[in-house]
Amino acid sequence: MTTTEPNTADDFATPRRDRLRRAFFRFSQSKLSMLGAAIVAVVIFFTVFGTVLAPYPEHVGGGVDTASRFIPPSAAHPFGTNELGQDVLSLVMAGTTVSVLAGFGVVLIGSVIGTLVGAVAGFARGWVDEVLMRLTDLTLTIPGLILAMAIAAALGSGFGNMVIAIALSWWPGYARLVRGEVLAAREEVYVTAARALGATPKRILFRHILPNVVSPIIVKMSLDMGFAILTVAGLGFIGIGVRPPTPEWGTLLSVSRSYMPDYWWTAMAPGMAMFLAVFGFNLLGDGLRDILDPKARR
Amino acid sequence: MTQPLLSIRDLHLRMSSFDGRAHVLNGINLTVNRGEIWGLVGESGCGKSLTGLSVSRLQPTPPAHYTAGEILLEGHDLLKLSQAEMQRLRGKRIGMIFQDPTTNLNPAFRIGDQLVDVALAAAERDPDVIGCSPNAGRRERRQAARKLAGEMLARVGIPNALARLNDYPHQFSGGMRQRVLIAMALIGRPDLLIADEPTTALDVSVQAQILELIKNSVKDFDMGVVLITHNLGVVAQTCSHVAVMYAGNIVESGPVAAVIGNPVHPYTRALMSAIPTRETRRGELRGLAGSVPNLITPPPGCRFAPRCQFAQPACTAAMPTPVSVGDSHAAACIRVNEMEALVDD
Amino acid sequence: MLHFILRRLLLLIPVIVGLTIIMFAIARLLPGDPVALAAGPNATQAEIASLAVEYGLDKPIWVQYGNYVAGLMHGDLGTSLLTRRPVAADIKAYLPATLELVFAAMFIAVVVGIPLGLITAVWRNRWPDYLAQVGAIGAISMPRFFLGLLLQLCFAMWLMWLPLGGRLPIVVIPPRFVTGFLTIDSLIAGNWNAFFMSLRHLALPAIAMSLSPLATIMRMMRASTIEVMQQDYVMTARALGLPQRKIITKYVARNAVSATLTVIGLYFGWLLGGTVLVETVFDWPGLGLYATKAIVSQDMMPVIGVALVIGLLFVFANLVIDLLYGVINPKVRYS
């Protein structure tokens, strides 16, 4: 342990920065969190470059190679080929883009809607709060997957529609979280002080309350990423969502079901990819929660 | 020759923490006989609770580490026992009562069940506790234990005791809960009772009743008691003997009449003068200047020296050893014998 | 107590109204013509129109909604275009399968998860605990449908120990309908063969469903056990000589379970809605599979009905949990 004599102006860094540095230190001390961060980094890498780096880019666009159907895993095709002779590894690599972007879209849209609803409800209180929170509770009561399936079916297939459909079943958690935090923050002394100084409600909400709600939202978003990816894949598995030939993990897995057990390898790569991506995001989310929002730890 | 019930000899305890090692007990010597109630007084953090927990070996090690000394219960060193052996002594030979009666009873269980479990655990060691042969069936033993639990509750002054065995802790008032806890501590008929601030969380009127109850139990059960408190009034009211602790040391000890009637250690004197009396006028409440020293880097010599109005250079040279000043009355101060003259000035 | 239950049951009414409105709003958004789809490719315009009239689908949406609510009063959930049967009858047939699966999964999760949580808490920060913690995150991250597929591949296709899917082999005559749970009904009928058969069919889907709640319950139980172990009354119990084993299994466990119960209640509702994927994998004739088939063919009445039933069960499960909570934690009983 070294002594930290504050002798330069830099050492009097803002408490926020100091807190961040400390948090980062604790995060890096946790091996599991680092593993999660590493997996997520790889996943994001493939999200961006997966299509480009795929060994058989022609298969990604829907190209088929009937001569080489159902080749078991080999050097040329580490995860074998599927019923159309497409390289499974290439499809899974390219599928990262759809799955992760869709998952991110769901979490982003869900958190924006939920934050707005929760912030308005918590800030307005009274009947507005009552109406918004009843709606939130109601949406929570409907099984999320069935709601998402119904909305997706209603909107029609396609990437955007699928993301919107899932996001519409995803926001209530954020609404509850943000409302709770806003209600708690309202009572804080600094908010009372700001109000006494004549700050407008809008300013109080955006300058004083929301910044303090950011950490729990980020934690929840990172914890939700994995489940959003799972839900996207689930819709694909059922056959609602992105249509082939766009490669998507859930759809790939669903197609491979028909060729079990003889051509089992067609299922392994998409399934493991899903598992690893979700695992990475969950580890990362757990680590982030521990450092950013220790009181939520239970 | 009869052995003393409890004899703590030169007990040293070190605590490891993030900041370093703290020498929290520094050569504690204390002897408790049956029929005696020893008050252990001092400010927060002086080590009085740690001494109590050490006797039951409830202080987790690590972070605690006993570096020297022994704790003899009728001649057997408790520090040498394993936790399993200790567990058989707890409740049976050594009973304990803690400060907050609201948190020390399990809220999810009827108090009857909690009493019965303690009695059955004690009966494992000594079947006489529940008056039932060890070969008796489970059911029979439970019934005997339950009967005893009812008797104990009545004995600690809970009206309608048998019916109340079926109540949950939240259905009792604070004072009644402390009575229940005393019944729990006494149900195994311990030889030694350690009461850690048993009345601090209670109203003054209830406090007196609880102290009276402890006092009477000493006679009934022929126990020795260590009563940990920060309140000299409680000591004067209840105890036969007192040991004053400061920063991990016992600075003065002896019979209550001697120590309170004629305190010789400057710290005891300071504590006494901090008690408001009838003559204290409004606004004159006096505290003790300064605070308990840092135990990681304690001051050299007498640990009280930095706060002592009589300190001399010699005080910081070495840790003072107890000096006898009368019938089993001792104080650890190098200026004990000058004290009377100093005070008269 | 009775007052409390009645008040909670009254709260179901706004839930029913809200749920049906939301689901109707979604049904309105449907782009395709479900009637045409149901009538079949060779249907004439007249046939489609008559089908629409038959099912009241020619009327404006609010009239349809009014009719629906009127039907709801006497337990009519509308008619499925796909099966041409009343939705209520379909749900009655499919719900027990889903419930049986959910109960079995929950049973596994609770029976394994709670002791594991207790043990890992006692062993905390040692390697078995670390292993269990990583395993738990892994279990939560595992897609249930992929896990189901792996289980099928391993135990049904390669080892051939357990059946691939369904609830009973076709050759086994199902027991008389009492509860709708095949395991229980076959026991009531005294039909051991059917009992073991249904248990064998239940095993894989129940395991696939149970893994994630198991891990969550374990983590929750571990956290609350650690919290409870720091309570004063645990110290008192130790100080009064209770054996460590008894303190953990009796005193700590009871207090820790009551904190875990809430999670179990939440998970029950979550599982009810989450059977869809597992039912698809194992061809399990439950609500999820029913809803999926209905959604794919844009048949909205069953979807509304399923959402309603699951929503109500979810609310109901939480009520039961609240009551159970009172049993375990006497302090809240009277409030």
TrEMBL record, chain A:
SUPFAM superfamilies: MetI-like
Domain ABC transmembrane type-1, first and last residues per copy: 96-285
Membrane topology category: Multi-pass membrane protein
Xref: Pfam families: BPD_transp_1 (PF00528), OppC_N (PF12911)
Compartment(s): Cell membrane
Name the UniProt record assigns to this protein: Peptide/nickel transport system permease protein
Keyword Membrane tagged: yes
Family: Belongs to the binding-protein-dependent transport system permease family.
Keyword Membrane: yes
A GO BP entry: protein transport
Domain of life: Bacteria
GO cellular component annotations of the record: plasma membrane
Transmembrane spans: 32-56, 100-124, 145-171, 225-242, 263-284
Keywords, sorted A to Z: Cell membrane, Membrane, Peptide transport, Protein transport, Transmembrane, Transmembrane helix, Transport
From TrEMBL, chain B:
Pfam families: ABC_tran, oligo_HPY
A GO-annotated cellular component: plasma membrane
GO terms of biological process kind: peptide transport; transmembrane transport
Keyword Coiled coil: no
UniProt KW keywords: ATP-binding, Cell membrane, Membrane, Nucleotide-binding, Transport
Family to which the UniProt record says this protein belongs: Belongs to the ABC transporter superfamily.
Protein name: Oligopeptide/dipeptide ABC transporter ATP-binding protein
Organism of provenance: Aminobacter aganoensis
TrEMBL record, chain C:
Record carries keyword Cell membrane: yes
ABC transmembrane type-1 domain: residues covered: 95-325
Gene Ontology CC annotation, any one: plasma membrane
InterPro entries: BPD_transp_1_N, MetI-like, MetI-like_sf
Residue spans crossing the bilayer: 9-30, 101-123, 144-164, 256-282, 302-328
Domain of life per record: Bacteria
Main subcellular location of this protein, as a coarse class: membrane
A molecular function (GO) term: dipeptide transmembrane transporter activity
Family matches, as Pfam families: BPD_transp_1 (PF00528), BPD_transp_1_N (PF19300)
Protein location: Cell membrane
Keywords assigned: Cell membrane, Membrane, Transmembrane, Transmembrane helix, Transport
Cited PANTHER family: DIPEPTIDE TRANSPORT SYSTEM PERMEASE PROTEIN DPPB-RELATED
Protein name: Peptide/nickel transport system permease protein
